[in-house]
């Protein structure tokens, strides 16, 4: 529960620091309008009025937003990974914010006892120094995001939509954690005509994703993956979806934002015809799915290669 609250507040802080135009939280000069709405300087040069309240800009910089944006990564690291080795270096050999809170909340009768508690945490910190740097989830897009489970029409900010799915769609919600930038999962689904399979899974180091697998009335299979984030962040991720059987049908391409309507990506996802599905389903009328999601390290410089759909014989 404590970890979920920390994630929620990290998301909320990131939303507050985002520029309302480019949705970026990068460091740099932040200017504001007469009503206090901040905007990054590159976007300010292109606009004459505030995009939120339509008022004029002033020459005063918003130093508070600039300083918070500069320390956003350190704040997230301190809250989400309180015992990480970098907290020692970032906070100048002091226990991080989350750790201080945990130590102070523990009962103690003297300063000597408090010192002992802090010293007990030091071996853990030293062991963490030998581990590689943990991956943090990408920044959160500003605004609301639609729920893609079934016929649900709810739209909520990122920090609240996870709670909505966990409470209202708990039967199809899964939570995972991965140690690197690659996530793999296998599903077995029953082949039923005119059936939709919707799943939501939260990968701690990547974000919240929707998986939709549709079997049409004609028996065609359509599968797509979307992330609960803005379009800019979705470009960090690529995925491969495979339907495995006597022959394999696979699709590799970029993950789409959940703000993109499914009708718009129907030609940009896995699509297997009914005659090929006959070779994929087993004798119990089930088919197996392999999903791989990868976060690209060089997503800012390299473009995603052309999407490909393959139907290959299993060797």
From TrEMBL:
Keywords: Metal-binding, Zinc, Zinc-finger. The keyword RNA-binding does not apply. Residues 19-54 form the RING-type domain. InterPro entries: SINA-like_animal (IPR004162), Sina-like_RING (IPR049548), Znf_RING (IPR001841). GO terms for molecular function: ubiquitin conjugating enzyme binding; ubiquitin protein ligase activity; zinc ion binding. One of its GO terms (cellular component) is cytoplasm. The keyword Zinc applies. It comes from the Eukaryota. One of its GO terms (biological process) is proteasome-mediated ubiquitin-dependent protein catabolic process. This is RING-type domain-containing protein.
């Amino acid at each position: 529960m404590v970890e979920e609250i920390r994630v929620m507040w990290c998301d909320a802080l990131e939303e507050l620091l985002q520029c309302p135009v480019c949705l970026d939280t990068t460091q740099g000069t932040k200017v504001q309008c007469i009503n206090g709405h901040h905007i990054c300087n590159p976007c300010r040069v292109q606009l004459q009025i505030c995009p939120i309240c339509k008022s004029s800009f002033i020459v005063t910089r918003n130093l508070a937003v600039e300083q918070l944006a500069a320390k956003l990564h350190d704040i997230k690291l301190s809250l989400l990974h309180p015992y990480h080795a970098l907290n020692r270096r970032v906070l100048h050999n002091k226990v991080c914010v989350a750790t201080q809170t945990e130590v102070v909340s523990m009962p103690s009768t003297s300063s000597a006892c408090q010192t002992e508690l802090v010293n007990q945490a030091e071996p853990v910190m030293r062991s963490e120094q030998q581990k590689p740097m943990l991956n943090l989830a990408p920044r959160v897009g500003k605004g609301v995001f639609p729920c893609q489970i079934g016929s649900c029409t709810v739209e909520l900010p990122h920090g609240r939509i996870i709670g909505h799915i966990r409470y209202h769609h708990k039967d199809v919600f899964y939570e995972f954690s991965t140690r690197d930038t690659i996530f793999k999962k296998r599903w077995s689904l029953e082949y039923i005509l005119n059936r939709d399979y919707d799943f939501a899974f939260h990968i701690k180091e990547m974000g919240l994703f929707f998986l939709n697998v549709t079997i049409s009335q004609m028996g065609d299979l359509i599968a797509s993956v979307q992330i609960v984030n803005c379009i800019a962040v979705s470009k960090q991720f690529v995925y491969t979806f495979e339907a495995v059987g006597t022959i394999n049908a696979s699709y590799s391409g970029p993950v789409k934002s959940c703000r993109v309507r499914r009708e718009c990506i129907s030609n940009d996802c896995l699509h297997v015809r009914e005659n090929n599905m006959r070779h994929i389903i087993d004798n119990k009328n089930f088919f197996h799915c392999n999903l791989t999601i990868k976060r690209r390290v060089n997503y800012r410089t390299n473009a995603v290669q052309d999407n490909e759909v393959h139907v290959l014989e299993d060797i």
